[in-house]
Amino acid sequence: MLAATVAVLPLLADGPVLRDLADTRGITYGTAVTASKLTGAYGELAGEQFGALTPGNEMKWESVEPTRGSYSWSGADRVVDFAEAHGQKVRGHTLVWHSQLPSWLTGGGFPAAELRTLMTDHIAAEAGRYKGRVDYWDVVNEPLDEDGSLRRSLWYEQLGESYIADAFRAARAADPDAKLYVNDYNTDGLGAKSDGLYALVKRLIAQGVPIDGVGFQAHLIIGQVPATLEANLKRFADLGLDVAVTELDIRMALPVTDAGLAQQKAEFARVTTACLAVARCVGVTVWGFADSDSWIPDTFPGQGAATPYDENYVPKPAYTGIAEALGWTGGGDPPPAGSSCSVTHTVQNEWGSGFTAALTVRNTGTAPLDGWKVTWEYGAGQRVTQAWNATVTQSAARVTAVNAAYNAAVPTGGSVTFGLNGSRSGTNPPPTGLLCTTGS
Ligand code: G3I
Q: Measured between alpha carbons, how far is residue 345 from residues 351, 378, 429 in Å?
């Protein structure tokens, strides 16, 4: 481990920092982690390079409630505490899944009514424990079969489709501020399974179920990254939901070759670019940042090397591919705006504890805009309290504004204005890092 630490330190000092590059582009770059490893080089990289953490196993039912009524939070606490200490977001994974359930639950022979209560009690306990500390919850994980029908899981077989709505409602009740996601794999491109997910999500929306986002796991294989990834993300975003790539890895046959690593670099970049191109894509999470912390070799013998760092925490070409897709040019320069819109921020009114600001997005490109996103930082503790003509969210200093459905389209040379009220406790300096990006 010592050798690995030595290998990492120069990178930390000189190289790109994915979380900062991603911030500048208005998305979050995260990683799944293993709680017990969060020290040494692994901990340094996890803390420095990534803006969000997902516990790889520590929040699953068998981890947190191995015995009925007896909770074990130490692994999950460790990840959440680490994230807070490093200013990172947390993606909670996962509340309701067919896998990694404790045997007392799977073998309990519970009647439907009791099983439903066990499920909602579990959600209340777990999401309630981390209320206000988890940014996104994978509320229901992998609810679909490959043909797009609902998976014949314990939950579905016993409770029917309504288990999904009940799970989301229980999660919303337990933590009203967390963004609630459904999450699945092999749904990354257009196809039968993602059609099934799309239909499910539409049904949930029609029923008024509190769902905020859709996670696309993206456990991919080199040479088989779906060409329709961006189009697929976009169609879910167009339902009015956030989308995210939640478990990205791109595996290859071992031993690795230079050609394989080069292709993997291009494909990590491609997935990152797809998220950047969709305004409601909130970020990308890699499923383990190092090949020594990846599930692939155990599950697919003969395959591996699926993450951006090798077994010794040395960054691979894939890492550079991500950095470049986020705008890194090799010299530590800030990424180019790369957009065809500009934005201004004007304080229109100020009073003792607050202010009103107007932001104007202008199409400076040569084609009409179909969606836009503006990001900035309020550096003096200002908080957005109300907004109009855009969906505005704030996480610490960072503010993100996404177009409303009715003002996504901006003709060439045209502009749209949105506004907000903010609170302040002292001075009200102008925002920093004000950036407009395009795409829907
Ligand atoms: O902790 C035990 C250890 O004590 C024991 O010695 C060892 C022996 O095999 O097993 C360890 O547990 C393993 C656990 O990971 C922690 O490493 C389990 O066997 C192993 O099955 C488990 O695999 C996890 C897998 O989910 C289970 O389905 C992977 O780490 C985890 O990365 C993976 O994550 C899933 C997502 O939750 C959902 N999407 C797919 C993704 C990949 O399968």
A: 17, 11, 11
Which residue in 65, 142, 267, 324 is the catalytic one?
142
* Ordered domains of the chain (ranges, CATH): 16-325 (3.20.20.80), 341-438 (2.60.40.290)
- The DSSP bridge pattern shows strands 369-370 and 398-403 to be unpaired
Neighbours of 250 (CB within 10 A): 28
Q: What is the mean pLDDT of residues 134-158?
A: 98
List C-alpha distances in Å: 144 to 233, 247, 402.
17, 17, 30
Query: Are 228 and 277 in contact, with CB atoms under 8 Å apart?
Result: no
Task: Look at the block and give the residue holding tokens 């579905």.
Answer: 156
Predicted model pTM: 0.77
- Given this model, what pLDDT does residue 426 score? 86
Ligand 1, CB cutoff 6 Å, lining residues: 56-57, 99-100, 141, 185, 217, 247, 295
Tell me whether residue 377 is one of the annotated catalytic residues. Answer: no
> CB under 8 Å to 28, separation ≥6 — which residues?
19, 22, 51, 52, 89, 282, 283, 284
pLDDT, tens digit, 9 for 90 and up, residues 259-296: 999 999 999 999 999 999 999 999 999 999 999 999 99
Reported as a single tens digit per residue, the pLDDT across 317-333 is: 999 999 999 999 875 43
142 is catalytic: yes
